[in-house]
Amino acid sequence: KVKNATIPNVMYGICEYETCTSTTFTYMAGIGVNNNSNIPNEMVKRVIKKQKFLQAEVPEEVKTPDAYNKAFEYIKQNGYELDKNDEIEVYEELFRDPDDHSFKLLIPIK
Description:
Oligomer: single chain
Helix content: 10-25%
Strand order of the largest sheet: 2-1-4-5-3
Distance between the termini: 36 Å
C-alpha cells in the first residue's frame, strides 16, 4: 500500500524507546519512505532522527535476543553510552523470521 520506498527490499524492525523495558516493548516493522509520502490511515509514521549508532552485523545463526545482549555488553565494556532513542534492526533481503535471518542491529549511542 505504501509507495516510494526509499530503499527497495529493505525492511526495518524498530523497538520504540518509549516502551522498551527489560520485560516489555513495542515493536514496529516498517520500510523507509520520503517525508512527503502518503501513509495509509491504518498505518503510522515513525520519524528516526539523525543520530549516532553502534552497528552490529548479526549472522543468521545468532538469535535476536542474544544479539541485543552481546551488543549491550560490548557497549558497556568499551565505554560507550547508550542514547535514549529507538533501537533498529535492518533486514536487507526479503524478510522472514528475525530468529532465522541475518540483519544489522543499530543501537543508539551518545
